[in-house]
Design a protein that fits this description.
Number of strands: 14
Low-confidence stretches: none
Bound molecules: adenosine-5'-triphosphate
Oligomer: single chain
Structural class: alpha/beta
CATH class of the largest domain: Alpha Beta
CATH superfamily of the largest domain: P-loop containing nucleotide triphosphate hydrolases
């Protein structure tokens, strides 16, 4: 298990990470979220043992993270950390050996992944000659080549077309099933919802929202109701608890302040003609994120 306990990090007077705690179990995909500058990269670098910090503790399976455990960690960064003058094979061997693998094992694994990602012809090509998406695939292969216990994925789908996004998703799901601990960071909330059970949201280094996405959605009392039919927007707007009504192509999305107002909205629709749809939806993670992060900025 990865445990981040009360970690604090200063850059001079700036508190970049403020008393942050969370844990990730084998088979968990954990989402670390935040706007630009919230402290995600700093947290990743601390977890990988690349950055000293000022308070708290980080342990992987009970051991402090230092060079002795870095061979158990895989990392895909947003900024490309490829050695672009090397060939794909040379680069894999360079990183594989750093992670304690033999050259033969690296080549065997590399071949397997190059076939899987459909880029077998690039094995002896220089990284700089590859397209952005193919470079991303090489970064991903480098991060997972040693089947890491802990895998950190910072915007893993950046620069990928939808078909390759699907391919990456499949591999991430497989690693999750095999029991890797995965920390996932993305500004795309639909990706977070797809992979992560638990999340932490950072604002200025501090956790402002933490827990399972399911519980977070349950606790967030606002709901959206989708209604199809001849409703009078002005009348609906006057119902207590109705925050906003958005006209979508052939239906309305009614945002309500609390689920206790669902019945009032429903009762109103029974007085309207042609109502063929009344569906209550949980708000999206994106909506909750914007609302919670926005509140903290006010
Ligand atoms: P992004 O989503 O833009 O990558 P982030 O959440 O990863 O942002 P960090 O890069 O961890 O954020 O930065 C957190 C804060 O620390 C920011 O205010 C940033 O300006 C500051 N910071 C980061 N690195 C340094 C450094 N080496 N020296 C001083 N301040 C730094």
């Amino acid at each position: 298990m990865l445990k981040v306990d009360n970690v604090t990090k200063y850059y001079g007077p700036l508190k970049a990470v403020d008393d942050l705690s969370f844990s990730v179990k084998p088979g968990d995909v954990f989402g670390l979220l935040g706007v630009n500058g919230a402290g995600k990269t700093t947290t990743f670098r601390i977890i990988m043992g690349l950055l000293d910090f000022d308070g708290g503790e980080v342990t992987l399976d009970g051991e402090k993270i230092d060079y002795s455990v870095t061979d158990k960690i895989g990392f895909l960064t947003e900024e490309r950390s490829l050695l672009t003058k090397l060939t794909v094979m040379e680069q894999a061997i360079y990183y594989g050996i750093l992670k304690g693998m033999t050259e033969e094992k690296v080549e065997k694994e590399l071949d397997k992944w190059l076939i899987r990602f459909g880029i077998v012809d690039y094995k002896h090509r220089k990284i700089k000659e590859l397209s952005k998406g193919n470079q991303q695939k090489i970064q991903f292969i480098t991060a997972i080549i040693n089947e890491p216990k802990l895998l950190i994925l910072d915007e893993p789908f950046s620069g990928l077309d939808p078909i390759n996004v699907e391919m990456f998703k499949e591999v991430i799901k497989e690693l999750e099933k095999k029991g890797s601990m995965i920390i996932f960071s993305s500004h795309r909330m639909e990706h977070i919802e797809l992979f992560c059970d638990k999340i932490v949201v950072l604002v200025e280094g501090k956790s402002v929202l933490k827990g399972s996405i399911k519980d977070i959605k349950k606790e967030y009392r606002k709901k959206n109701i989708l209604i199809k039919g001849d409703i009078d927007k002005t009348k609906l707007e006057k119902i207590k608890g109705v925050l906003k009504i958005i006209k979508k192509s052939d239906e309305y999305e009614v945002k309500i302040e609390d689920e206790k107002y669902i019945k009032d909205v429903f009762d109103y629709t029974t007085t309207c003609d042609n109502v063929t749809k009344f569906v209550v939806e949980e708000p999206s993670l994106n909506e909750i994120f914007v609302s919670r992060v926005g509140e903290k900025y006010e």
